[in-house]
Structures are given as C-alpha cells and as structure tokens.
Specification:
Chain lengths: 363, 282
C-alpha cells in the first residue's frame, strides 16, 4: 500500500492531526534554525512571536465562529485580559521567581484562567442570545475591556500591588515601579516570550481544539451549530455546550494575549481594539469556518503580507485589501472552485502517469 | 407474533398488552398564540407499548401538539405526565432526558456530520465522557467512544444502515434520512417516540417497510410510538388507537374501525355534503 492510500484510509481525526501538527512542526523546524542563524530579515524575526499568538487567536476564534457557529466580535477583548494579566503577573514575579520560562508559563496560565472567567461571565447572559445580538454584545464587551484598562493604574512596591483608576500619583507608592500606566498600557515589561514558547502554545491549542472537535462535547457543539432544534430534541443542553465552547475559546485567547504582551517592552490597551477583533475574524473566514488547517495558513500568510509588501510603499494596504477581496471571491465562487478542481485532477493524472512510467521501467 | 400470556382475569392476551399503564397522559392541554387558540382541551392517554395515531386535516394543530408534548411550546393550559411525572417547567432537552424522543416533519439532521456521528449525538446522554476526557482524549475517552460506536452501529444495523455509517448525513437519499432521524431519536433511549409524518414523500414499498419498522421498534425496544400521518393505509394498519384533531380540538378517539365509520371524522375530511345539496335544492 502506498503512503497516499494509507493516509486516505485513516480516520478523519488522524488525518486532521497529521496535517495540522505536521504543518506547524515543519514551519517551526524551518524557521527556527534560520532565525537563529540570522538568515531571516529582522522584520520577519520580530514578527515570529506575534504570528504565533495570532495563529492561536484565530484557531480559538474558529472554535466560536466555525465550530459553535456564533459570531463573536470581541475576541481581542479576551486577548487583552490575558495580555495585562500576564504583564502584571510577570512584573510581580520578576524578583521572586528566577527562571523566565517558569514566569512565562505562569503568566500564560493566569492569562488563560482570567480570560476564561471573563468568558464565563459574559457568556452566561449573552449565549442565550444568538446571531446578531451576540455579535453586538461581544463587540461592546471588547470596547468595555479596552476602556477599563485604559484608565487602570497598577504599581508594585515592597508592600505589594497597588491598583487605582484615577492616576499614577494616587497609587501612593513608596518607590517601586508602575506596571500599568493608564492609556500608556503596560510599561517596562521584561521580554521573556520566545518563538519556541509560541510554537508550544500553538501545539497546545491544536491539542485542545482538535481533540474537542472529535469528542462527545465537540459533537454536541457541532450539533448545536448544524441544527439547534434537533440538538435540543435529543437532549443536549444548549447553554452548557455553548458556554463550554465559548469559555475554551476565551481561555485560549487569554493565553495568546499573555504571550503577546510579554514579547514587547510596552503594550497599550488600544492595541486590542475592534480592528484587531476584525483582523482575527478575517483570518478565520479566509482560512475556512471550522477549518483549523486553513486558519493556520491564512493567518501566517495574511499577517506576513503587509510586511512582504513593504517595498510597494503607500500601496501596500490597497494591495492587501484587493487581495482579500480576490481571495473571498475566488473561494466562494462555484466557477472558480470548478476550475481549481479541474486543475487538481489534471495535476493528479500527470502525476499518476509519471508514477506508472516509473513502475513500468522498474518492472 | 406476540407471545400469549394469561392475564389476572383469566383471559389469554398478548404479553405486551399486560402492561397497559399509560406512558404519556395529557390533561386539558391547550395553547394560545396571541388571541388564536391553536390547540384546546387536548386530553389523551398513550399506553406503554401502544402505537397511537394522530390524524386530522391540514392545519388542525397536530404538529403543535407534538411541540407541546416536547415543550418546544410551553402550554397555556393543562398538564403533561410522562411515566407519572409532570413535565411542566422543563425545557426540550430535559423533556428528552425524561423519555420523549421525536422526529420532525421537515427532516432535521446534522447534515454536515457523518451518519455515525448523528447517532452518537443521539447517544450523548448515555456516553460517560466528561469535558476533560473530551479535550485530552484520555481518562476513559477511548472506552467511552468504543462503547458509543458499538451501540450506534447496532442501532444503525437495526434499520440496515450500518454500511452507511461513514457517509455524510446530508448526502443520503430521502428515505434513508428519514430512517436516520428515527435511529437518532431511538438512540436517546426514550419511553415514547413521536414520529411527525414518517411516511411523507415515500413510495408504497418504502411505506410498507416503514410500517414493518414501526412495529419492530415497538416490539424490540418496548416503547410507545405516537405518529402523525396522512397516509390512511399506514395509520389504519398499524395504529391501535387513533385520535382525530380538527381546528385544534379532538373530534374523535378510538380504534381504527371506530374512526373509519365515525361521521364527524368523515365530515372533517370531506365536508358536509348533504347539507350543501339540500341548500342547492331549496
């Protein structure tokens, strides 16, 4: 049996696993040595950790949008919660814990937990709504989080954490330093995030999301998406499984946020605005609803595109937008699909002919 | 044929008739939509292994009755008892867990999922697999899935659909989709199954097969079946009790023979012929 036919004989779960983990591992294996050896331009090296976080963001949003089928426009809000939780935690642990990877791990876990709690708090009232209402409430949530963090002041001194919502002076600190400075956001962050950490976080996200899809809970979530009334009629608790998907999605976004924040020396709340939520949604839509493999590719390409188009200067956002529209039209037109399908068949037949020739000459 | 057993009275009756305690009772059930009364005074008792039919002209409120029994609509008046327990205040999924399963008039499958997965969604509440087992695929995941697969295939095999297990549900032919909906409902381990026009769109040979299947469901799973159907041949052949609904009210209840000769039923279906003639003559 050839490898191709063996691959086809595997279960869908196994195939998805091989495809997605394979892609991520190969990308990492290629990029890691290259960036270490300094063979990749600095502009790309600097984007490696953000790409990882955006991939995690897109995969986790795909859980809400693609698998659960509910439109969320506030995903950056959960990222923001994770980011500032991570920043505050890492700053307060800096002197107590010596090892950077341990701090990073704790920050990511804390970011995930807090974002998960936030997801639960807004999920309970909101998931009773669906469709447009849910989209609008999540949008509002993202803005609220942004504005709260915009006027939040957090400092640390020998006495511990000081939190205030007025200004930095009223924190009443003796010495110490400010971690969160209102509109300036988190300042003086020690950069401890690394490409390897991003890679591991992607693997972790894939593990959670793909396993969830191919499980009892995942089937319930997909069933709700496909036909809510039928799902209810076979005894599935709609609110419970919507919440499970939503909280998991929020927690993963929080983890990505923590990693993101710890990759920069300063992060402002403004970074996690509506535009970021939409950007992530674009990755998901272009990658394919419920398609994890496609999401990874779409995120990596679309995130790098403005970087690669730097040479065309002022036109780069214009080209970016045109490309987006073109891809949307191509992937949604039946004619384009037909042409692609034909091209695929032709390629396959050429490939097969070559193979047969080889077999013939060998035999 | 059913096994014949002696009854306390001394009579020899089919075994399944011994258990005539009702599985489902509705008392004075009614619902209003705004000012419109869609169903009113609907009182019906379905025995534990009975095949009951619900018939009536279009728009009589038959599907509304199903939606009331499964609490898709909360009744305005009246009570529903399942195995002696009231279903008041429960939502549809809780009602299903109490033991009422149903199919839909316009098929509602999870069309993007495989046939096997559709049945496994039906088995949801009997699979022992928590959230952490789900996300890690450890902690008893393998065992739970194995049991679920085996059970789902067994149910599919009952309707000779086991070979279709890997197909996508939406790509099945119409008749198979209808059967799959019944399998999925049976997977929830109900004590009564409600079938909403199971023979709609079927040809005579498929209908004959369906009749056989409905009897097999009752005899194998020992559950009650209640069905809405316009195919009178099917209803009269397999139903033991029939309830006729017109304009939201029960106009007749009884055995097939009683219903066939009931003037009210004939009137509801065909209209009052004689009066019109009389009017014309006058």
């Amino acid at each position: 049996m050839s490898i191709a036919s063996k691959y086809k004989g595997l279960s869908k779960y196994a195939r998805t696993n091989i495809k997605t983990y394979g892609l991520v591992i190969i990308l990492f294996a290629v990029l890691y040595p290259l960036s270490n050896a300094g063979l990749v331009s600095y502009s790309i090296t600097g984007q490696l950790v953000p790409i990882c976080t955006y991939i995690v963001m897109a995969i986790s949003l795909n859980l809400t949008v693609g698998i659960l089928g509910e439109l969320s426009l506030g995903h950056a809000g959960f990222m923001s919660i994770g980011a500032f939780t991570g920043a505050i935690l890492s700053a307060s642990l800096q002197d107590k814990v010596g090892s950077d990877p341990v701090i990073l791990l704790l920050a990511i876990i804390a970011g995930g937990i807090l974002a998960g709690i936030a997801g639960c708090l807004i999920g309970i009232p909101v998931l009773r709504l669906s469709g447009d209402y849910l989209a609008i409430v999540t949008l509002a949530f993202g803005e609220i989080i942004k504005n709260i963090i915009n006027c939040l002041y957090v400092g640390i001194d020998s006495k511990g954490l000081h939190i205030n919502m007025k200004d930095a002076a009223s924190l009443g600190m003796k010495g110490g330093r400010i971690i969160l400075n209102g509109p300036q956001g988190a300042v003086g962050i020690t950069k401890i995030a690394s490409f390897t950490a991003g890679f591991i976080l992607i693997l972790f996200t894939l593990f959670i999301v793909i396993n969830l899809i191919y499980s009892r809970s995942g089937r319930a979530i997909t069933a709700i998406r496909d036909n809510r009334i039928a799902a209810e009629s076979v005894g599935i608790s709609i609110t419970k499984y919507k919440l499970i998907a939503f909280i998991t999605s929020a927690a993963l976004a929080g983890m990505a946020g923590a990693l993101y924040a710890l990759n920069f020396s300063a992060v402002a709340a403004e970074k996690f605005n509506f535009n970021t939520s939409i950007l992530i949604l674009v990755f998901v839509v272009l990658g394919g609803m419920g398609n994890i493999f496609g999401t990874i590719i779409a995120t990596a390409l679309l995130y790098m595109l403005p970087e690669l188009l730097r040479d065309v200067g002022d036109f780069r956002m214009l080209i970016y937008a045109i490309l987006l529209i073109a891809v949307m039209l191509l992937t949604n037109s039946s004619k384009a699909k037909l042409i692609l399908e034909n091209a695929k068949l032709k390629l396959r037949s050429i490939f097969r002919k070559n193979n047969d020739g080889e077999v013939g000459s060998n035999g | 044929m059913d096994k014949m057993v002696p009854y306390p009275s001394g009579a020899i009756v089919p075994e399944r008739d011994v258990d005539k305690r009702p599985v489902l009772e509705t008392h004075h059930l009614g619902i209003d939509f705004g000012g419109l009364t869609a169903v009113d005074e609907f009182s019906l008792t379905v025995g534990k292994t009975e095949i009951a039919g619900l018939i009536g002209p279009n728009g009589a409120g038959k599907t509304t009755v199903f939606n009331l029994i499964t609490n898709v609509y909360q009744p305005t008046r009246g009570t529903i008892m399942l195995n002696g327990k009231s279903t008041a205040g429960k939502n549809t999924s809780q009602v299903n867990r109490m033991g009422i399963a149903r199919t839909f008039q316009n098929i509602r499958l999870f069309s993007n999922m495989s046939v096997l997965d559709n049945v496994k969604v039906g088995l949801h509440n009997s699979i022992k697999e928590g959230f952490f087992a789900s996300v890690t695929h450890l902690l008893g995941y393998k065992k739970a899935e194995k049991i679920a697969d085996a059970r789902a295939l067994e149910l599919l095999d009952f309707f000779s659909m086991a070979d279709l297990a890997e197909e996508t549900a939406g790509s099945l032919p119409y008749g198979a989709q209808r059967r799959l909906e019944i399998v999925r409902a049976l997977a929830t381990n109900p004590s009564i199954i409600l079938l909403d026009e199971p023979a709609a769109g079927m040809n005579p040979s498929e209908t004959a097969e369906l009749m056989e299947n409905i009897r097999r469901i009752r005899d194998t799973f020992n559950i009650a079946v209640m069905l809405i159907e316009h195919d009178m041949n099917l209803v009269m052949n397999i139903c033991e009790g029939i309830c006729v609904l017109d304009h939201g009210k029960i106009i007749a209840k009884g055995t097939p023979d009683e219903i066939k000769s009931n003037p009210k039923v004939i009137e509801a279906y065909l209209g009052k012929k004689k009066e019109k003639e009389a009017d014309g003559n006058a």
